[in-house]
Design goal:
elongated; 6-stranded antiparallel sheet; 6-stranded mixed sheet; 17 strands; single chain
Length: 579
């Protein structure tokens, strides 16, 4: 709940601070004192549109600061933490409006967009006044109010319907996707089949492209390779009779070994050198043998070369289309085969989904019909109870209806009776709260049939009978417009009843309503002849009695008026405290 609000330089209010209590808080004061500025300040604090004209004349800016006590798990606290604010020591909200019209917001000690204040405010406060009947002005909120009033039966039926709707919608979306993709699917199937047939015909093997490249190099240069090997072999071991003047390396090494061997016994260094020459001789002989084998095995094969070149060409074309290597092409082929199997099974999937969609649609119709039934029952009860409340709020001639209807839709769901209706995620129903303000008048949507004060009283009646508890604080401005006498006491009693389950802040000009307050604040103005300013004080005891006396008869020094005011306070104190 809201525990404190401070307003600075807003309209006629120079600097005022209100300590708010649980239960019913009333704000009173003479006409023009600035009572409405308190409500305006609350609106600014929770994200309403700023107007530079609200800034006090001569001031650079207006500031509204509020402290809210909510548990850490409350959605408002979580939203503030998501915006980077702190909530451990209570939730602090600040709104600043400059005289140039600029607006700034702080939540939990951190600067934030003004929109965050609006989001936080949705979880903390509902304002009901002639300019802020948003819940009744938004058609969807009529359904939300009815569903909240309906409690567990409506909640359970709505949950069943929502699950059925989502399952049906998923099946419909999947069917639509498969059907509209029919032509594309056929083209894709043909493409994949052609590609797989091409890959299967070539049958690339992992690493084959590298092996073919090497083989082509060998075959294309076979003459040169063999000639080089033969020349190297002749140089090492001889065998070319046309070159008589060149002695082979093997013979030269043998001669060197023989020459060194004849004297090796005389010097160990010579013996070691001879050993190294012998090692070279062995290596040269082995190398000569290998060169001979290579030369003998290297044949010129034009047919094989042509085949290798053709295979490389085919394989290169495949790699350009499906992968950078043979292994990548095989990976692509496996994936394509899986996709092809899935696409070829699409017709079976469509048939199965069509059967599922029919079954899910039937389930949705059943769930929607059940939800409509519990809503209709709740609507009748809500209308009756709100009507009863309005009798105590100076609207005894008013008649309330809560309409639960279906919107015809040729493309929608067909109900058991043959009607085809629109389906939404929240149900099949359009809910509208209707009001006939006077006998004989046809019921119309409540926002058109009721005046501002009547609209506030209708909202109050709705809040009292539904006791939603979805927000911790309710604010009523001018809810008592056009009310007086005994009806004013009934209005105060109804506000006190709502205050048992939530914090209520009400701006009133009726002493009968103020008598029910848990805390009474008075807005008072003063003037030095040049500037008029207002402040807010909390009144108790005799001060409070005097204020209520003023509200009742316009005087504070009449003993009769004071006695009447004191009787009102004393009479309604037990009721206010929970009696």
């Amino acid at each position: 709940m809201l525990t404190r609000i401070r307003i600075q330089r807003l309209g006629v209010i120079e600097d005022a601070e209100l300590e708010l209590s649980p239960g019913l808080n009333v704000i009173t004061g003479e006409t023009g004192a600035g009572k409405t500025m308190v409500v305006s300040g609350l609106g600014l604090l929770f994200g309403s549109r700023a107007d530079s004209g609200m800034v006090r004349t001569g001031a650079g800016s207006a500031v509204v600061e509020g402290e809210v006590d909510v548990p850490s798990a409350h959605p408002a606290a979580q939203r503030v933490e998501a915006a980077g604010g702190e909530t451990e020591d209570g939730l602090i909200l600040v709104r600043t409006v400059s005289s140039e019209g600029r607006s700034r917001a702080h939540v939990g000690g951190r600067a934030a967009p003004v929109g965050v204040l609006s989001e936080v405010g949705e979880h903390l406060m509902a304002v009901h006044g002639q300019a802020a009947q948003w819940r009744l002005r938004m058609p969807d909120q009529h359904r939300v109010l009815l569903d909240a009033f309906g409690g567990a039966p409506v909640r359970d039926a709505a949950a069943t319907y929502t699950g059925a709707f989502r399952a049906w919608q998923e099946a419909r979306d999947e069917l639509a996707r498969l059907r509209t993709a029919g032509a594309e699917r056929t083209l894709r199937v043909d493409l994949l089949r052609t590609a797989l047939e091409e890959i299967e015909g070539v049958d690339p093997q992992p690493g084959e492209e590298d092996e073919l490249r090497s083989e082509e190099q060998r075959l294309a240069h076979a003459d040169g390779l063999r000639q080089a090997a033969e020349t190297a072999h002749t140089a090492l071991s001889g065998g070319d009779d046309t070159v008589e003047e060149v002695r082979p390396v093997v013979e030269l090494l043998a001669a060197s070994s023989q020459a060194l061997g004849s004297v090796a016994e005389h010097d160990p260094a010579i013996a070691e050198l001879r050993q190294r020459v012998d090692e070279l001789s062995y290596l040269a002989a082995d190398l000569a043998g290998d060169l001979a084998s290579y030369s003998a095995g290297t044949d010129v094969d034009p047919v094989r070369l042509a085949w290798v070149q053709e295979r490389r060409s085919v394989l290169t074309g495949l790699l350009r289309k499906y992968g950078e290597s043979s292994a990548a092409v095989q990976t692509w082929a496996r994936s394509a085969a899986e996709e092809l199997a899935e696409l070829e099974g699409a017709d079976d999937r469509i048939a199965a989904l069509t059967e599922d969609e029919v079954r899910l649609r039937q389930d949705l119709v059943a769930a929607g019909t059940a939800l409509s039934a519990v809503r209709a029952a709740a609507a009748a009860d809500l209308a009756r109870r709100v009507g009863d409340e309005l009798e105590h709020l100076a609207m005894g001639s008013a008649r309330v209806e809560v309409s639960v209807t279906h919107r015809p839709d040729p493309e929608g769901l067909q109900l058991s009776g043959g009607d085809t209706v629109r389906a939404w995620v929240h149900g099949l129903d359009e809910v509208e709260i209707l009001l006939s303000a006077n006998p004989g008048a046809p019921p119309r949507t409540v926002t058109k049939a009721a005046s501002g004060g009547e609209l506030s009283r209708v909202m109050l009646a709705l809040e009292v009978v539904s006791a939603q508890g979805d927000v911790p604080t309710y604010v009523f401005d001018e809810v008592d417009a056009g009310v007086g006498g005994a009806a004013a006491l009934d209005l105060g009693a109804r506000l006190a009843r709502l205050a048992r389950s939530a914090q209520v802040i009400v701006v009133t000009h009726l002493g009968q309503v103020a008598a029910f307050a848990d805390r009474h604040h008075v807005v008072r103005k003063s003037s030095d002849g040049v500037i008029t300013a207002s402040d807010v004080r909390t009144v108790e005891g005799d001060e409070r009695v005097a204020e209520i006396a003023r509200m009742l008869g316009g005087v504070t020094d009449s003993q009769a008026a004071l006695e009447h005011a004191r009787e009102l306070v004393e009479e309604h104190a037990p009721q206010r405290l929970g009696g």
